[in-house]
Design the sequence.
């Protein structure tokens, strides 16, 4: 008998948006690449230097992120022969996901007195407010206040 945990099926056809998102960008390197792009990293060599990632793995992840429409590959902005990976609108829309993960990590994965980075807003140089899930009315929601419903997307 085959162990169901040993067999990984693609989540691309799952009805669950979380499963599809994980299939698309859920590995650590893809999210770290996107995180670096939010810090204005654009070139292959810069991603490799920052992440310490093997060239073949970085090339594979960047190719997949371009195919997903998260990055556009463009000529370098300085006119050199290099190419740059520029976040698309779809890629920029991942920002709240990265912020939520960052804030969760800040809150739960560092001991008191341990050094870590924080996200500051450029205008006031203050830490970004914790993200919250809110109802259309503005009421703050927790898991117990929500439920899932199947829908069909058209157009």
Sequence:
């Amino acid at each position: 008998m085959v162990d169901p945990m040993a067999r990984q099926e693609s989540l691309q056809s799952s009805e669950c948006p979380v499963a599809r998102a994980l299939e698309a960008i859920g590995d650590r390197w893809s999210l770290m690449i996107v995180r670096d792009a939010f810090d204005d990293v654009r070139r292959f060599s810069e991603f490799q230097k920052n992440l310490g990632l093997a060239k073949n793995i970085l090339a594979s992840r960047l190719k997949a992120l371009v195919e997903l429409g998260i990055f556009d590959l463009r000529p370098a902005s300085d006119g050199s022969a290099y190419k740059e990976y520029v976040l698309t609108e779809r890629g920029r829309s991942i920002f709240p996901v990265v912020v939520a993960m960052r804030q969760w990590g800040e809150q739960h994965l560092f001991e008191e007195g341990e050094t870590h980075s924080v996200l500051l807003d450029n205008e006031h140089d203050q830490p970004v407010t914790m993200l919250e899930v809110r109802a259309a009315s503005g009421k703050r929601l927790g898991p117990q206040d929500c439920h899932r419903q199947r829908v069909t997307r058209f157009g």
The two ends are 43 Å apart (CA to CA). Residues 2-7 have pLDDT under 50 and may be disordered.
